[in-house]
């Protein structure tokens, strides 16, 4: 049997916005536990839980002050252990989120570094450098805007590729390596099935720290030759981690968040002795266009099969504009998102579902500025609106905010129109997004072709993607603007599921996808 992670559907739980148990308006681990039956019924295989560790929340928990505990906002260590146990009892595996590129400024190591002199062992765990006169050591920029260096009282500067509250660790330091290996064991010993690795392409930096040259951006998919993204030295770290995960029973797994421009560079992280899978941002970034989508699929499968790794597919996460909105918003955006879901779930490999996409939630674009929490909003003085709009708490039930999110309010306001989109409202409505995801996931689990069948493209009209998963499953996606006749290979096939109405003769309207079996 293949390892589970080769074709699993993993649901991303953004804890603070999933379900709140105690009425403080912030989702928490007991809230996640209370909704496990919903996730089991949805039909996903596993959960990836965003960071819940003690943190000042300068970057929504991606600034970790203690990697071995739970922030009181989100619960207790006992709640995390109970969540792993309960999820397993519901047949769901659990991945936690590991943030190795940087700690919080409140981490005891960084506090010790600030209290210690330049050149000390305490400073050597981070990237402290002398500046050039009154200027920082080089021109590196933070991914959230502004410079990537902050100055401390004695005049030295420290590197932070994200917010100043997120100092970068020095991964050439043996103490840093040993500490993270111990953290992995801490959670593996508690039964966690794996980790999502935050900024996995960022740990190694060019020791010369040259200026960022033209052609290299501070964030986004990195081009080869970048001074702080995707350096070859990073692979050693993952080889050591793989030896650790392989030492545990039950197919523990790592998924990397790796932003690189070239799928062949991505594949290097997935060599047999490194990480298991990575998010496929090429697919996520592709526009709603048949050629672009097909190119993303082909490039990904080709690059990853060269190292024996499965592809993964993802449409949304907590860092990007929700895909209903990316695909145009409104009714057209919803139609495309429905079709995209059937495309994604029919492709070979694994898939990620970001909480709320199964409800068809759009980006919330009109949040009041004073409620926005994403550091990129303030660091760019509003030039970037930031990522809060995809992080609005989920609507579960009822007709008014907070729509069953919890007994108090919700940390970001939910649009009144979400009354139509609650999980309760969509349950049992055969036309809802939730019903589409449930049906697709049920079929996916039952059909051997979707588990293992190779992908073969079929001839199709312009704007249409059509493929078979051997031997007997077919997916057709009309990403064009005109109705499209079904490919001839499908004449004798039976329609299994469609994202919208399909004509009796098999003609697919625009922005519609359909699954068939023969
Ligand atoms: C990753 C996370 C993002 C976070 C950043 C810094 O990209 O997904 O939310 O802000 O890393 O940790």
What can you tell me about this protein's structure?
The chain is α/β, with parallel strands linked by helices and 518 residues long. 27% of the residues lie in helices and 13% in strands. The chain contains 15 helices and 16 strands. It has helices at 29-34, 36-42, 77-89, 108-115, 174-189, 234-246, 263-268, 281-285, 290-305, 323-326, 330-346, 375-379, 423-426, 433-446, 448-452, and strands spanning 9-13, 46-49, 93-98, 128-129, 149-151, 157-159, 194-197, 253-256, 277-278, 312-314, 350-354, 455-457, 464-469, 473-478, 494-498, 512-517. An 8-stranded parallel sheet has the order 9-8-7-3-2-1-11-10. It has a 5-stranded antiparallel sheet with strand order 12-13-14-16-15. Strand 2 (46-49), helix 3 and strand 3 form a beta-alpha-beta unit. The longest helix is centred in the middle third of the chain and has 17 residues, at 330-346. The mean pLDDT is 97. The structure holds alpha-D-glucopyranose. Alpha-D-glucopyranose (GLC) is lined by residues 59, 62, 99, 162, 198-199, 257, 318-319.
The strand order across the widest sheet is 9-8-7-3-2-1-11-10
Shape: globular
What is the residue-mean pLDDT, rounded to a whole number?
A: 97
β-strand amount: 5-15%
Number of strands: 16
Number of helices: 15
Give the low-confidence spans. none
Helix content: 25-40%
Q: What compounds sit in this structure?
A: alpha-D-glucopyranose
Estimated structural class:
alpha/beta
Radius of gyration: 23 Å
